[in-house]
Design brief:
By secondary structure, the protein is mainly alpha-helical. It has a domain of 91 residues. The chain is 67% helix and 0% strand. α1 runs parallel beside α3, α5 packs antiparallel against α6 and α9 runs antiparallel to α10. The longest helix has 16 residues. The chain starts with 19 loop residues before the first helix and ends in a 7-residue tail after the last helix.
Amino acid sequence: MFRILSIALVAAAIGFSGQAVRAADIRDGAAALIAGDYLTASSELVPLAEQGDAVAQMLVGSMFRNGKGVERDYMEAVRWFRMSAEQGEAKAQTNLGFMYFRGEGVSQDYAEAARWYRKAAEQGDFKAQTHLGFIYSNEESGQVDYLEALRWYRMAAEQGYAPAQNNLATMYDNGKGVAKDQAEAVRWYRKAAEQGDAAAQNNLATMYYNGKGVPKDQAEAVQWYRKAAEQGDAPAQNNLALMFIAGEGVLKDITSAHMWWNIASANGDDIASKNRDLAEGEMTSDQIAEATRRARECMSSNYSDCD
């Protein structure tokens, strides 16, 4: 499964140039934004954005895009992102590309999204590289080019970006733009999975389950499915339930299977919902009640109490 991430609110680290006072004001504004002090963020950032500071413009655009301290306004977000992007600010270019990709504040336009992603990607922005790779690997974009997708995914993956590593692994797994190589797919899935990427953990688990690129190991599959499931990944929750119902890599336990299917269903997985309903035909009312209680406790504990 490919991963495409949503727009970032603020950069993890922001490099500033120009006068020390301006830099300090932007740092203060960004810190306030992260802390949820939107009044301070606005008072620090908006004047700088109006004076033409590209970083401040990018951050103000993010405030409008995410509705942080202001009413959510995609058109206003696009306006600020564009001003920043046209000055060469890579993160704003990525964000503007995302707005075109999603059709937020502008008409959806994959070609225009790709154009802005490319500007940021060529500056080394790993999120833009990943987004651009996704456009080239996504048939809906009308711009499928697996070789290009592979190239951009690899650039971002080699920077250590977990979603790109997962997507690169998927290219190897399916032989898209490169010779099919499941051992190489496992290598990249593992890199992303060890960083905590839930989609990669689910994919790595499936490789272990099927014995593709690694020796078949159902117990190892269960471990990786569980790691992803406990992050709220619905496909992994469905898969973990399947392991419990079949007793593969774990003791057979229909109550645990029902619990995970119930959770996956709550997270929007329609297949899990059907599996849960089928399982109920083999369960007593007490078992169903217990499974439902456990599912509720698991979710209310943010997956810290799921045993």
